[in-house]
Amino acid sequence: MPDPDPANTPEQEIAIEQRFVDRVYDRVDVLRGEAEGNRDSGYAHLAATVPGAQFERDVFVYRAARRIADLDSQHEGMVFGRLDFDDGKVRHIGRLGVRDEEYRTLLIDWRAPAAAPFYRATAVDRQDVARRRVIRSFGRTVEEISDDLLNDDAAERLPVVGDGALMAALGRKRTGRMRDIVATIQAEQDAAIRAPGRGATIITGGPGTGKTVVALHRAAYLLYQDRSRYEAAGILVVGPSAVFMKYIGRVLPSLGEETAALYSMGELYAGVEATRQDRPEVAAVKGGTVMLPILRRLVRQTPPGAPGELRIVYRGDVFRLDAPELAAVRARVFEKETRPNLAKTEAGRALLIALWRKIKPVIPDAEPAKFSRDVGSRGEFLTFLDHWWPDLDPADVLGWAGDARRLASAAEGHLKHDAVQAVAASLREADFSIPDVALLDELRLLLGVKPQPRGRDRIRSWDGIQEVSTTQDRYYDRPERQARDAFYEDYAHVIVDEAQDLSPMQWRVLGRRGRAAGWTVVGDEAQSSWPRPRESADARRRAVPRGRVHEFHLTKNYRNSKEVFEYAAAWARPRLREIDLPEAVRETGVPVEEKKVAADALLPELAGAVAEALDAVEGTVGIIAPYARHAELAALVHDDRVTLVGPLESKGLEWDAVIAVDLKAVAASHGPGVAYVVLTRATQRLTRIDLT
């Protein structure tokens, strides 16, 4: 690396960094070739017959395959930072660590402690850093550099180029997918990312402070710090909606991490991918702890279609158990085992006891043991038992509540008539809603989970000797989430985004997934859509294991321009208590535009606003409108850059331009917190269209 020359032009400095970047990529090409050679050497020993040699060979192949995957996933923008220290030493920061031919450090992984000054050094606390440089590349070509001079005395020996990497990154167009921010992590964000994995880490902050992307980079950091723990037991990342999970889905792979499990709250029940939103008043009932006693009563109800009479012929006499007697038997079974799917044997025993009490007075010489063997083994008795006490599926039991009379019986003393009718109507829909997923998971436990036999692993065998030669293949071709489905409960760490929106029932679901996990909880109470925050807070305290708590508060809004955020803040202040208002760090000079139109003029007015926004920005345009208007507005989504979403799906997302439709209706339906969310999604331009 040549000595720095303060007289260098930006082009000369870019050329210096290009030579270093070329050197890194050349070294990575060598490492990739070595890994490919190791992998091929392992495959050459396919015929190994000694179990120990088979295992060693497979580990060899697996590690080589992982190395190739790591190098490939980090190829784009591999080198993004440089630190010049007061003593003249230089460190380059990148997406992964690279050593040269003599095993000296060439590139430092961004998660390593040695890289921390890149994110934490400030003019007040320089940490011996004289200059911080951000390097922006496309492919292997350095396109731009941007410097922060932290030591004014170093200006005589260090050239300074650019206007600041953060501002440049914030001004770039949005693409519809969240990017990683490894090159522009700020000091307060870095502190949260590097917090200990055990205990609970609470990250709060207003709109645009980077809470979500910090949580994702935290997952990558934890995997780097203790890979054996977090890869073996897993990291769960939970977000509010499928739209949101798609938006963030490429961040961790871009950081070289593919093993974290990403689920929306509508996917945390195997086989269900719920996207439907209930009306707010219905969601408030389904998500509340009031549903717990209702579900407990529901699972005790007689299944639809169950026979109402048991008729048995014994030694020439006919004996019957009628409906009230069968109901009494059912009640006695639940006194001994509350989980129906684990109580079938007890149900059969209880039926035989009830029959015996009728038979004994009529046939005094009958023997109980012989009677039980005789009647209990009969086909008609076993058939009756299967129909009267069937194995119950949570989806079927929740469907029972679509019958308003059944639900009213289970909800007596807990729900009023109008609430019963509204919830029952929702449960008669053809698909499940997002709040239904928490009810399904609760029913899964109330019904009783039968132990499932483990499926055979895909391990090959020759002459009865199993080996592990398919490990590398399984790493690549296994189905998504095969190892950890939606019911997996042994995660080492759980990351919850938009936590302020979770209902108590949803917190119960997450508590089951992370019984012994560390937690990262991310949110902003001012943006909450849940109407009873105290109830939700109590549920969160029960879900998150007690232990050490690390709290971080983010104070800078990097998403919105000052014009957009000051407008949103002015709207929110009188409507939201204890609102957290971060400081917007940039201006665009573009004020928020307000329009008022008649309802029948909405479509042409909105079409014009969309066309104007597409001309004004290079990136994406979001239309956020009440759900009731989506059908009429769908025709306006004729460009790949335009997205139409509801207020709840807009959480966590951002667009270059946003058109907020009928904000008053949004606030009336979902609360002022959600309307505040809608006003803070735009990075450059916000247009508000209200109906007169």
Automatic annotation (TrEMBL):
Ranges of residues in domain UvrD-like helicase ATP-binding: 184-561
A cellular component term, taken from the record's GO annotations: cytosol
GO molecular function: 3'-5' DNA helicase activity; ATP binding; DNA binding; hydrolase activity
Pfam families, A to Z: AAA_19 (PF13245)
GO biological process: recombinational repair
Keyword flag Nucleotide-binding: yes
Keywords: ATP-binding, Helicase, Hydrolase, Nucleotide-binding
Residues that bind ATP: G205, G206, P207, G208, T209, G210, K211, T212
PROSITE patterns named among the record's database cross-references: UVRD_HELICASE_ATP_BIND
Name by which UniProt lists this protein: ATP-dependent DNA helicase
